[in-house]
Amino acid sequence: MLKLTNVSKSFGGLKAISDLTFEVRPNQFFGIIGANGAGKTTLLNLITGYTPPSEGRIEFEGMPIHGLPPYRVAHCGIGRTFQITQPFAEMSVLDNVMTGALFSRNGARRSLRQARAMCDEPLRLVGLADQAHQLAGVLTLGARKKLELARVLVTEPRLLLLDEVMGGLTPHEIDDLVETLRRVHAAGTTIVMIEHVLHAIMNLSDHVFVLNFGRELYRGTPDDVVNHPEVIAAYLGKPLTEQ
Ligand SMILES: Nc1ncnc2c1ncn2[C@@H]1O[C@H](COP(=O)(O)OP(=O)(O)OP(=O)(O)O)[C@@H](O)[C@H]1O
Ligand SMILES: [Mg+2]
User: Which residues form the ABC transporter domain (predicted)?
Assistant: First the structure.
């Protein structure tokens, strides 16, 4: 579904992404882990057109997408969340989600009424239905993360890319979100999830890719990854069972 071939990205002298090649298959739940600064967000920015690759090819459903602007990538059916959320602070939670519904997949234009009708389900799924009429600017960090997820779910992406969407949530909220993402995935959405909340990524992913200084360190099933000595040395610090 998504294929990267020899993708690299340099910022001046810094090689943030080095020669990455991997594929995400339809219906996969693909986890990406790596230390701060490993290049995870840069990787999402490359896929979604926020920054062009210095080298390499990126294909979605067989079509090259590298070089396309972000809105064109979104219209292909790729949705993403941002690690640093930037909701429209002066607008309500509902209106923020409606912005996603108005300009979503295939660039289809919708009426306000149609867009409004699409918002209930994502707001309910993420647990923000009760706060739909609050101003986005007063939300807690955790609620902003939920809004970020609702805003992208309303675009009905076929491929959903999540950048640390669990940051700032309480343990209880994380458990809820794990179940929500399980349902979104079961409903047919392919998911790529960057996350530092390890138990969430290990519970949800069928495949985990480990980035280290912009390079592939290891990939495999969650069990393989957490037991791999290099992953333990570079990222986990100590085996997961002892944490
Ligand atoms: N626009 C940019 N210009 C210059 N350097 C950048 C830019 N974006 C990212 N970098 C650098 O690229 C490297 C990878 O950053 P990136 O944000 O992708 O890491 P990350 O894995 O998402 O980290 P975190 O877990 O902290 O979110 C870092 O050294 C960062 O400083
Ligand atoms: Mg990041």
Answer: 2-238
Q: By the 8 A CB rule, do 222 and 202 touch?
A: yes
pLDDT band at 31 (very low <50, low <70, confident <90, very high): very high
Domain boundaries, the chain: 88-157
18 alpha carbon, closest ligand: 1
Q: Which residue's alpha carbon is at the smallest distance from atom 7 of ligand 1?
A: 11
pLDDT at 142 over 60: yes
Q: Which long-range contacts (CB under 8 A, 24 or more apart) does 83-87 make?
A: 83/41, 83/163, 83/164, 83/167, 83/194, 85/144, 85/145, 85/147, 85/148, 87/136, 87/137, 87/139, 87/144, 87/147, 87/148, 87/151
Give the binding-site residues of ligand 1, using a 6 Å CB cut-off: 11, 14, 16, 34, 36-42, 83
Nearest CA to ligand 1 atom 17: 41
Say which ligand is closest to the CA of 9: 1
pLDDT value at residue 231? 82
Mean pLDDT score across all residues of the chain: 92
The 2-11 sheet, strands edge to edge: 14-24, 2-11, 55-60, 63-64
pLDDT in tens, 75-95: 899 999 998 889 999 999 999
CA atoms of 42 and 195, how far apart (whole Å): 14
CA distance 98 to 119: 6
